[in-house]
Write a structure and sequence with these properties.
Length: 369
């Protein structure tokens, strides 16, 4: 049986934040980070809650790549505050943290009644506002742990592009390429279907139409809004289809070498496209045709797509080789087999169109270095 599941109510546009004033809740638990506090974005959320008479507690301790310790701390505070609304405000890290906090708090709660969950993304990248995935980091064992459960899916996503306007160019670049990776991997996944393919292809088109505009001019609100929509579409696609080994490798690179997730995906994507091309080249040809690249044959379409990804990376100052990241070559080579084993055990690998062996991953990593 093929199925497509969409749980999240998506609110977007200039008045999207007004939905916070329409919720039948009494106490909110806002999960965010210090950047959102210092920029005044948390105050914008508070103002809507104040107008509707909803109390709130702000948990702003989320760090990049949220740790298990942060999640445990947040879950305890959530239970203590007896909140009936959780608001995640920020990029992928605060939203992932909020998901895990809500999930573990619900498991530990003695009484019934799960809080309403609202996600407000401030970057156009993760699509986490509509997915059942959360990634937390075990910093002791240096590994990222992807969690997957329908209970992690937010009830409401608020897409307000004004929150993304101040995102600096390098973050716009990495998060935007994360959207592209989500879309391409969703389109070529073993579990792809008619619905996921439609969302994924449109997300690819949005990235190629609007990412460079948003990168070059942060005040281009048309580009900002469409990148936010593209990110959400890609999230809806991969939430149903799964992803692939670009993400699996990025999870391991992040856990061991602390490479930011979007940056890792950006660097790895063209290499993984080539790796998968024999098994799913026709899908890469279809993507190339969608965005107007030369694609008269499968081989030409795949080559055109790889070239376009590389050129977009280069335009935005993103390297196309792992060796250009801040990783010592000796440390990288010493960890090749560890990374490969992590990839084979990662939940994203199941969706990859080519079934890799440990040796395949090691060779791919060597070629990408």
């Amino acid at each position: 049986m093929t199925q497509f599941y969409g749980k999240t109510k998506i609110c977007y546009g200039d008045d999207a934040m007004d939905v916070l004033e329409q919720l039948a809740v009494t106490q909110a638990f806002i999960v965010t980070d210090q950047v959102m506090v210092s920029t005044g974005f948390v105050d914008r959320v508070k103002s809507h809650l104040d107008r509707s008479g909803v109390g709130y507690h702000v948990f702003a301790d989320v760090e990049p790549d949220p740790s298990l310790e942060t999640v445990v701390k947040g879950a305890r505070l959530l239970l203590q505050n007896k909140s009936d609304l959780i608001i995640a405000l920020g990029g992928g890290s605060p939203i992932d943290a909020a998901k895990a906090i809500a999930y573990f708090a619900d498991k530990a709660a003695e009484d019934a009644g799960k809080p309403l969950f609202v996600a407000i993304p401030t970057t156009s990248g993760t699509g986490s506002e509509v997915t059942d995935i959360s990634v937390v980091t075990d910093k002791i064992n240096e590994v990222k742990i992807p969690l997957s459960d329908e209970a992690l899916i937010p009830d409401i996503a608020i897409l307000d592009a004004r929150f993304t306007r101040t995102v600096p160019p390098h973050v716009t670049a990495a998060t935007g390429m994360d959207v592209l990776t989500h879309a391409i991997e969703a389109y070529t996944s073993r579990q792809a279907n008619a619905f996921t393919s439609n969302y994924a292809l449109n997300a690819v088109q949005y990235v190629f139409d609007y990412l460079l505009r948003a990168y070059r001019n942060g005040d281009d609100m048309e580009a900002r809004e469409n990148m936010l929509l593209g990110s959400c579409m890609a999230g809806m696609a991969f939430n149903n289809s799964g992803l692939g080994i670009t993400h699996s490798i990025a999870h391991s690179l992040g856990g061991i070498f602390h490479v930011p997730h979007g940056l890792a995906n950006s660097v790895l994507l063209p290499h993984v496209v080539r790796f998968n091309s024999f098994d799913v080249g026709i899908r890469y040809q279809e993507i190339a045709q969608k965005i107007g690249l030369p694609a008269s044959t499968v081989e030409e379409g795949t080559a055109s797509l790889v070239k376009a990804i590389r050129e977009m990376n280069e335009t935005m100052g993103i390297p196309n080789r792992i060796g250009s990241l801040k990783i010592e070559e000796s440390a990288f080579m010493a960890n090749l087999n560890t990374i490969a084993r992590n990839v084979l055990g990662d939940i994203c690998t199941a969706g990859n169109p080519r079934r890799p062996s440990e040796g395949d991953i090691v060779e791919l990593l060597r070629q990408a270095w």
